[in-house]
Design goal:
This protein is of the alpha/beta class. About 25% of the residues lie in helices and about 30% in strands. The protein folds into two domains: about 180 residues, Rossmann fold, CATH 3.40.50; about 140 residues, Tumour Suppressor Smad4. Helix 5 crosses helix 6 and helix 7 packs across helix 10.
Length: about 325
């Protein structure tokens, strides 16, 4: 391990854990995997141990009702924990508040344990966030699947300045939504992976999407190797995170469309989807969504678009900076 003075000079690493990620009703309505508290504790422990071996021993962490971080680090020596945040609400606001505090604390990088929704909350809190998103949620198109020990080591190398952020954490594409005609004070919206317009009466529902209610999807990426709307888009026209493009998919009733796709809309769950239009979007191209409709962002119904209101969606490369763990480790392994 590095000498103590080297440890002291490193910037802190933030760790955000969503205790609810990977536990919602989609375990009953589909075949999504349940991510237990014990698994999350083990992931946090491996992240901290990997970071410590890289010389980063300062961590900014938040409280949660299950004491995940405390249980993960109780027996680890030679680390400093700074606790932020107050009472938890059990909503995404907990992640927003924690990441804002981590920004104020000067964290060089934040490791987020969760799915697309948890990372979306983190990005809302800190637009310039440097993030290692580890998959422990239901919709996992944005997080990466990488061994937590190595993810922690990569975060540590960034925290001590061994690898410059500009070399290993490119900006992610996101979907920005500008709201027009909504009540004064309404804020614009963000989706990391997919913004979907549905004709659904229930805001906040985590039930599966009824294909008959789907209207359109704007995707920042389309990957046939994942589930959800990014996976559906990937089966139609793959768009990688590195490409300067997005994807528009318009849906119709199965009986009224010439093209029907059977796609994985949730883990272990397939649906027949009527496809009315598929086309690539250049960055910044505007897609108008007119109410009354419901906007689902990264798999969760979030915002009702009222009659007479509209949202203008664009795919932009101005999202959080996502750490390429493999690039960091290759850089460290380079001789000299």
């Amino acid at each position: 391990m590095p000498e103590p003075d080297q440890q002291h000079q490193s910037a802190p690493i933030g760790i955000v854990v969503n205790p609810r990620a990977g536990t919602d009703v989609r375990r009953a309505t589909a075949a999504a995997t349940r991510v237990t508290l014990e698994e999350k504790i083990n992931v946090v422990r491996r992240v901290v141990l990997g970071a410590r071996e890289s010389g980063a021993c300062r961590f900014v962490v938040h409280h949660d009702p299950h004491r995940i971080v405390r249980r993960a680090t109780d027996t680890i020596r030679g680390i400093q924990l700074e606790w932020v945040g107050g009472p938890v609400s059990g909503s995404e606001q907990d992640a927003v508040d924690a990441v804002r505090a981590m920004r104020e604390a000067g964290c060089a990088v934040v490791v987020v344990l969760g799915g697309d929704g948890t990372n979306r909350a983190a990005a809302l809190a800190w637009p310039d966030l440097v993030v290692v998103p580890l998959s422990t949620g239901t919709n996992n198109a944005f997080p990466v699947f990488v061994e937590a020990t190595v993810a922690g080591a990569a975060a540590g190398h960034l925290a001590v300045g061994r690898v410059p952020v500009d070399e290993a954490a490119p900006r992610a594409k996101v979907v920005r939504l500008r709201l027009e005609g909504e009540p004064e004070g309404s804020s614009d919206e963000l989706a990391l992976v997919d913004a979907v317009a549905v004709d659904d009466p229930f805001v906040g529902s985590l039930e599966l999407f009824d294909p008959a209610t789907l209207r359109l999807a704007v995707l920042s990426r389309a990957d046939p190797a994942v589930v959800g709307f990014s996976g559906v888009g990937g089966l139609l026209d793959p768009v990688s995170p590195d490409e300067d493009a997005g994807l528009l998919v318009r849906f119709g009733l199965v009986g009224g469309c010439q093209r029907v796709l059977r796609g994985p809309t949730a883990p272990g769950h397939y649906e027949d989807l009527g496809i009315a239009e598929v086309r690539r979007l250049v960055l910044g191209e505007e897609v108008v969504i007119e109410g009354p409709l419901l906007l689902a962002l990264d798999g969760e119904r979030k915002r009702r678009l009222h009659d007479g209101a509209r949202a203008v969606a664009t795919v932009r490369r101005d999202g959080p900076r996502v750490v390429d763990v493999r690039a960091v480790m290759r850089r460290v392994a380079t001789p000299g």
